[in-house]
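Interim report to the steering committee. The following record documents the input for Oxidoreductase (66 residues).
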Amino acid sequence: AVQRFRAIAPVVAEHVGPMPYSALNSAFDALVPPGLQHYWKANFVTELSDAAITAHLDHAPRLPAV
């Protein structure tokens, strides 16, 4: 399932596997300056269907980025 994401653009960084929530929660702290309102919402999944990947590819480009 991840191969479709890799085919879209060059990979800058990748981690697929278990990670403590505290590490994930602080992984991007250096990119967000103090005072900037920053909120993440996520779900953890055990598989990605083709339909879910297609939905992400369709909607993700419209999301604002830091």
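The chain has one domain: 3-62. The committee is asked to note this result when reviewing the revised timeline.
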